[in-house]
Amino acid sequence: MITHQVRTHRSDEDLPRSEQLAWKLAELASDPVPVTPEVTEMIINRVIDNAAVATASLLRAPVVAARSQALAHPYTPGSTVFGRSPDLRVSPEWAAWANGVAVRELDYHDTFLAAEYSHPGDNIPPILAVAQHAGASGADLIRGITTGYEIQVDLVRAISLHKHKIDHVAHLGPSAAAGIGTLLGLDTETIFQAIGQALHTTTATRQSRKGEISTWKAYAPALAGKLAIEAVDRAMRGQTSPEPIYEGEDGVIAWLLDGPDAAYDVPLPGPGEPRTGILDTYTKEHSAEYQSQALIDLARRLHRTRPELADPGRIASIVIHTSHHTHYVIGSGANDPQKYSPSATRETLDHSIPYIVAVALQDGAWHHERSYAPERANRPDTVDLWRRITTAEDPEWTRRYHSTDPSEKAFGGRMEITTVDGQRIVEEIAVADAHPLGARPFERAQYVEKFRTLADGVLEPAEIDRFLAVAARLPELEPGQLSQLTVVARSGLLGTVRSPKGLF
Length: 504
Known about the structure:
Layout: E1 2-7, H1 21-30, H2 37-56, H3 61-71, E2 74-79, H4 92-104, E3 112-113, E4 117-118, H5 124-134, H6 138-158, H7 169-184, H8 188-201, H9 216-236, H10 252-256, E5 263-268, H11 293-305, E6 315-322, H12 324-330, H13 346-349, H14 353-363, H15 374-377, H16 380-386, E7 389-393, H17 395-402, E8 413-419, E9 424-429, H18 444-455, H19 461-472
Parallel strand pairs: 6-7
Antiparallel strand pairs: 1-5, 3-4, 6-8, 8-9
């Protein structure tokens, strides 16, 4: 890896393109580096993972709305839409929109956490949509996804967005645009212009993840993917972007991030160096914000070993000592009263660690639908226990969260439980069971089982088997065969929900 220092520059400094971060990202994307077998295998896993969580969300209102918008934009050759026949094609940017919402809706796919946080699997819908439309091969798609993951992971390692209340999809626009550039074999200049436009159009505030969290949470990455496709289209037509987009005196760093005096050290693979960023990412066993994954596993364990802790009448307090991010984003440090409200939206509840721990302690399990049901959130004993749970930042957990050493990087915490009779119970967990260093790391069998579980009742058994067989053959798929990399809902299922009417 080569570390590049990125800082703001006055206009009269005339920063050459070769020194601009967007150009370095474009050079990475246009470098024809072979994909390693380990990366190829993980990409297949994540394609299966994305399809699993998208399948489980096909009847949810945001997904239904996005799908109906996409279907209003038929196009040939076009791209497929999750749930519908592969013979039905829409314009690729609208396919990326619909499929991106489906993938993101349940907060159930992969994650990477460092200076910023991200869901790198959000790169797959736009890159796949363009690959289908362009008649690319499976190998082309793998190369594009490799770039998308690599660039997003590298940006997330170095540049914090949430510190300045900028939504994390500002790293997704450039990574998706770069991945599409790799997929299509575009030159460095074209990818550079697309990256700049994608960044410029995908910066937004984090209010989408604050307070009463709305259905927009699922749309934010889908919009970034859609805008990345449009940016590539314009760049291919010779249209240019603001530059230097990161370093300019009125650019992203100067006005949206750490300001005119800021500098970032961004690590990027050198020329010819394998792109292995995807191997540092991790998926979810549970449908909830990633920092809750390990704590769900700890709560499930306590449910088995100390079942009396599920009774609020026995609990004086539960304090979760954890990282800065967990405390301030999904914990009581957010100071969001909605995180303790039984009438909160699902999107809010999956960003409330007090709620999640209360339910997991009582149920000994976590389910992507039942755990969020209104009757579950309103159960009196759950509400009572929930309001006895708070979080606190612990500097050591914050340090481990930001550690660059994979062996000590952690996203868990220490749970200190005080009972009404004065007992003090202390338990901790560093990483989720499904994490590569966890008790039960996810491998291909677990990704397949996740898909089969979430597809049960949504897809016909033959369709489940067909998709898994196609995904396993991804590297061998020939041009024109990527349309098979979708899922078709069982007959009549999509008709059980009403598509809302809009402009189109």
